[in-house]
Specification:
This protein has 279 residues and is α+β, with helices and mostly antiparallel strands. It has 6 helices and 14 strands. The protein folds into 2 domains: 113 residues, D-amino Acid Aminotransferase, Chain A, domain 1 (2-Layer Sandwich); 149 residues, D-amino Acid Aminotransferase, subunit A, domain 2 (D-amino Acid Aminotransferase, Chain A, domain 2, Alpha-Beta Barrel). The chain binds pyridoxal-5'-phosphate.
Length: 279
């Protein structure tokens, strides 16, 4: 595979990150994972908007660089002959110059990809974990920064107890999101998902699902969901660029996943059609 490394195309086994890169030194970076279906990036503009908002939030200079991404991504896809994949775009604050908290370097851009792999069997098991036990960055608006230590630790802890993904509960007892996915519930034919004010990531697939749900005449509510109420839900699923819609269960929870299955298929069709708009 050819990696895009800040202006150069490099074979994957030769690609390295400069030791003075702020992203490597301080996690001073943002990233996006973008789905490519049959050679087309899914909702690239949404990913670029999120990166734009992240750059503003962390006062990263060089927003103009975002305009170059569509063309570089297209070259990446053709250079690597990609049909379907998860491409990852990373922007760092660049090579550290002077005081690291005032580094005025140009941002550096990297691009790589991995195959799409998702569980074929569902529902997958989830486990509820307390956010306070993990170093997780959470503020509003949420950013997709290079600091995923807490997310990764929680993911491992979840796997260690036989779960596919953790679902976080914040200090106030509200459900927020997963380590690398958003969470949805359905109760009385209403689709519920934690509100962005909790500092959850505005997932590209989260948005897409809300659009698909409205098309199916399902009411949608971005709201506060207290952990104590989850047992009363009719359905639950998680969402991300990688897994799409993935129904979930936990100890003592049972569901027929009636609406979840429909949304899962609707999203799958959108991916397969190589389309990005819900029509
Ligand atoms: C913390 C977190 N929440 C949610 C998501 C889902 O976002 P998207 O739908 O854009 O893949 C991700 C994806 O990486 C994530 O890291």
């Amino acid at each position: 595979m050819l990696i895009y490394s800040n202006g150069s195309w490099v074979e994957a086994h030769k690609a390295v990150v400069p030791f003075s890169d702020q992203g490597f030194l301080y996690g001073d970076s943002l990233f996006e994972t973008i789905r490519v279906n049959h050679g087309h990036a899914f909702r690239l503009e949404k990913h670029l908007e999120r990166m734009h908002s992240g750059m503003e939030t962390i006062h990263m200079a060089g927003i103009d660089l975002l305009a170059d991404i569509p063309e570089i991504l297209e070259t990446f896809i053709s250079n690597n002959d990609i049909d379907s994949a998860l491409t990852r775009i990373i922007i760092t604050r660049g090579m550290s110059q002077g005081k690291p908290w005032r580094s005025e370097s140009d941002p550096a851009l990297y691009m790589t990809s991995r195959p799409i792999s998702k569980p074929e069997q569902w529902p997958v098991k989830v486990v509820y974990l307390e956010e306070k036990n993990y170093p997780i960055l959470r503020f509003h608006p949420a950013i997709k920064s290079g600091n995923y230590l807490g997310n990764m630790l929680a993911k491992k802890d979840a796997e260690d107890v036989g779960a596919f993904e953790p679902i976080f509960v914040n200090r106030d007892g509200y459900v927020t999101e997963c380590a690398i996915r958003n969470i949805f519930f359905i109760r009385d034919d209403v689709l519920l998902t934690p509100s962005l004010e909790l500092g959850v990531l505005p997932g590209v697939i989260r948005d897409t699902i809300m659009e698909l749900a409205e098309k199916r005449q399902l009411k949608v509510q971005e709201t506060l969901i207290i952990k104590d109420d989850v047992q009363e839900m009719d359905e639950a699923f998680i969402s991300s660029t990688g897994v799409g819609v993935l129904p979930v269960t936990w100890d003592g929870f049972q569901s027929n996943y009636r609406h979840s299955q429909v949304l899962r298929e609707d999203l799958h069709k959108l991916f397969e059609a190589g389309e990005t708009d819900v029509t």
